[in-house]
Write a structure and sequence with these properties.
Length: 388
């Protein structure tokens, strides 16, 4: 006799309680589709907070994971490894010129921590400047760079010598950068902060000021990287040359992984001053290699550009007075409402579309880059219905 398990009750009984759970249990995924335990399908416009760029359970990624899991799962970085070496070579070939030294870790927040260490160690300075509305993670250093007080307040005092300037305000940044500034840490498009693109003047100005004053430019592409915005890296839209590029989320097709890529101004961390037990493990490296291959062979950055342009046009033409603004780039789109977004996220879920918030009034769409035209049209129709 088969026993029906109440998965929600089981999670609630044992989980830490730090997550606001939706009343939905997902058990399967393929491409841009997820299924719950009843067999109902959903179009996924969350992608695990932007993780599943190549789609859920892409066959090439699954095959790489299965093969590597039967070969070697873990290998510390004190030893060389074939999959790690090949990933480092293949990833560096896809990065902007000069970013050819890589540190591998397990998440975006770990990558931010590593970037902060590189900046302080290589400049001999301590101050880190970040932007208001920016989000860089929840560990103490990354949290110190994150602006939202809701995340910061319970854990203060945080790491000293962090400050925030208004995003897209080059005059404020000019005033803030001093001889004690080790780095400026910015997103090209603020994700959690409401899908807010940085202006040419601000981002290129930040690069110029960092060069002039001896600070490093740290660009956080945890959410915008790997084709999400229609280019391999969002910094390419503006021809930026970051000193450290921060990567994670979709790097390994759903397997936890993060990385930083360090340019010539980034200096080097001395042996033993940083490390990671699981960073660069063969399983994650094999998954990342397969992900890079899928992104290239299926031309997913180019697909994100064309699909995103179509989606932006359709959304901007929706005849809803509830919409204040639609903004974004590629398949990273924010719909800012004149009221709170939560009821509309629930209404979309009821119609088979999963989306994310980005602040209290923004609906955020981060679908897998493999999403079909028919699925995108269904998303637009659902938004049109719920926002009327």
């Amino acid at each position: 006799m088969q026993t029906t398990i109440d998965y929600r009750a089981l999670e609630d009984r044992h989980a830490s309680g730090v997550y606001a759970k939706r009343p939905l249990t997902i058990v399967q995924g393929s491409g841009a589709t997820l299924w719950d335990e009843t067999g109902r399908a959903y179009i996924d416009c969350a992608a695990g907070h932007g993780v599943a760029n190549v789609g859920h359970c892409h066959p090439q990624v699954v095959a790489a994971i299965q093969e590597q899991a039967a070969t070697l799962i873990t290998c510390q970085e004190a030893l060389y490894n074939d999959q790690r070496a090949l990933l480092l070579d293949e990833l560096s070939a896809r990065l902007p010129v000069g970013l050819d030294r890589l540190f591998l870790c397990n998440s975006g927040t770990e990558a931010v921590e590593a970037a902060i260490k590189v900046a302080r160690a290589s400049t001999g300075r301590t101050q880190i400047l970040a932007a208001m509305r920016g989000f860089h993670g929840r560990t103490l250093g990354a949290l110190s760079a994150t602006w939202e007080q809701h995340y910061r307040a319970p854990f203060q005092p945080l790491v000293p010598d962090f400050a925030h300037v208004p995003y897209n305000n080059i005059d404020a940044l000019d005033t803030a950068i001093t001889g004690e500034t080790a780095a400026v840490l910015l997103e090209v498009i603020q994700g959690e902060g409401g899908v807010r693109p940085g202006s040419d003047e601000f981002l290129r100005g930040a690069q110029r000021l960092c060069r002039e004053r001896g600070a490093l430019l740290l660009i956080d592409e945890v959410q915008t990287g790997f084709g999400r915005t229609g280019r391999w890296w969002a910094c390419e839209h503006l021809d930026l040359e970051p000193d450290v590029l921060i990567l994670a989320k979709s790097i390994a097709g759903g397997v936890p992984m993060g990385a930083i890529a360090i340019g010539p101004r980034g200096g080097a961390l001395a042996v033993g001053t940083h490390g990671s037990t699981f960073g660069g493990n063969p399983l994650a490296c094999a998954a990342a290699r397969a992900t890079l291959s899928v992104l290239q062979t299926e031309q997913l950055p180019e697909q994100a550009a064309s699909k995103g342009a179509w989606l932006l046009t359709q959304l901007r033409n929706l005849p809803s007075r509830r919409i204040r603004e639609v903004r974004g780039c590629g398949l990273m789109i924010g719909i800012e409402l004149r009221e709170r977004a939560a009821p509309y996220l629930q209404a979309l879920q009821e119609r088979g579309v999963l989306a994310l918030p980005a602040g209290p009034t923004v609906i955020r769409l981060l679908p897998p880059l493999v999403i079909s035209s028919e699925q995108l049209a269904a998303v637009v129709a659902a938004l049109d219905e719920v926002l009327q």
